[in-house]
């Protein structure tokens, strides 16, 4: 059965996503993919080197059925509880869940059961707990080490100076498969400042990869800045609003301390 036929849209769904969300998402997806391809073309990269990770946070589970119908099966969520609730509702769909936001240690037991990758590793405490819980389930997890590339207090992630000592010890956690680095650039209309954040992450990756050949990937770039991120070497772009429309909650809701814009 076409998953669309099972959905009854609520008035608030129509207000936020329109009358035909599946068609809208599919069209937005195509546009974002075309923008990714164009950005790659501009800087001589292959679009195959850039993976689009759709970010589904705040999009209700019943609407995500329409996203799935529109061809989206990788879902990035930044809150574990929200991901758990959606996963329970959508358990019959073959969705890959990526947790991309800060994680409290007491939520690790849930993450290891549902996530295929984790983009916000930034402490040994978390690494230890992840490894322990993964080992109990006899599974591995792809991880990205988050770096605070903007120096903003509101952002999670390791200080750039702490990255090398951190990755040097990751082999103590054999269930973690470090794939690369992740960052959130500064929210700024000044593209140079945004670019500086991405460039810093790339430089760190270039340094780290010499001793840790598995650390190849850069997870960086969101709706507002993914083209700059691609120009600076992004391999994973995490894009929500350009596909699903503006969130009713602004960025400050997700990054406390950030001035609303
Ligand atoms: C929400 C979020 C994104 C996507 O942001 P958009 O503006 O919706 O593209 C990317 N990365 C992280 C960590 C997020 O929380």
TrEMBL record:
CDD domains per record: PLPDE_III_YBL036c_like (cd00635)
Co-factor requirement: pyridoxal 5'-phosphate
The keyword Amino-acid biosynthesis appears for this protein: no
Keyword Cell inner membrane appears in the UniProt entry: no
Domain of life according to the entry: Bacteria
UniProt modified residues of type N6-(pyridoxal phosphate)lysine: 57
Signal peptide per UniProt: none
SUPFAM superfamilies recorded: PLP-binding barrel
InterPro entries (UniProt xref): Ala_racemase_N, PLP-binding_barrel, PyrdxlP_homeostasis
GO molecular function, one term: pyridoxal phosphate binding
Residue span(s) of domain Alanine racemase N-terminal: 28-248
Keywords associated with the record: Pyridoxal phosphate
PANTHER family: PROLINE SYNTHETASE CO-TRANSCRIBED BACTERIAL HOMOLOG PROTEIN (PTHR10146), PYRIDOXAL PHOSPHATE HOMEOSTASIS PROTEIN (PTHR10146:SF14)
Family according to the record: Belongs to the pyridoxal phosphate-binding protein YggS/PROSC family.
Role noted for this protein: Pyridoxal 5'-phosphate (PLP)-binding protein, which is involved in PLP homeostasis.
The protein's name in its UniProt record: Pyridoxal phosphate homeostasis protein
């Amino acid at each position: 059965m076409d998953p669309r036929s099972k959905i009854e849209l609520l008035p608030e769904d129509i207000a936020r996503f329109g009358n035909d969300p599946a068609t809208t998402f599919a069209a937005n997806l195509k546009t974002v993919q075309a923008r990714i391809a164009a950005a790659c073309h501009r800087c001589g990269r292959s679009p195959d080197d850039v993976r689009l990770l759709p970010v589904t946070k705040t999009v209700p589970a019943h609407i995500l059925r329409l996203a799935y119908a529109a061809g989206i099966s990788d879902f990035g969520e930044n809150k574990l509880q929200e991901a758990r609730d959606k996963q329970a509702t959508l358990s019959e769909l073959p969705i890959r869940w990526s947790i991309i936001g800060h994680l409290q240690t007491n939520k690790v037991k849930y993450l290891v059961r549902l996530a295929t990758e984790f983009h916000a590793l930034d402490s040994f405490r978390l690494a230890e707990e992840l490894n322990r819980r993964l080992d109990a389930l006899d599974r591995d997890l792809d991880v990205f080490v988050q770096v605070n590339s903007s120096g903003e207090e509101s952002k999670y992630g390791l200080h750039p100076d702490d990255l090398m000592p951190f990755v040097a010890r990751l082999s103590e956690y054999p269930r973690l498969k470090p794939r690369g680095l992740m960052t959130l650039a500064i929210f700024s209309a000044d593209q140079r400042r945004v670019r500086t954040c991405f460039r810093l992450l790339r430089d760190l990756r270039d340094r780290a990869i010499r001793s840790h050949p598995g650390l190849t990937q850069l997870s960086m770039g969101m709706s507002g800045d993914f083209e700059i991120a691609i120009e600076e070497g992004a391999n994973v772009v995490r894009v929500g609003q350009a596909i699903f429309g503006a969130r009713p909650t602004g960025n400050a809701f997700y990054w406390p301390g950030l001035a609303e814009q």
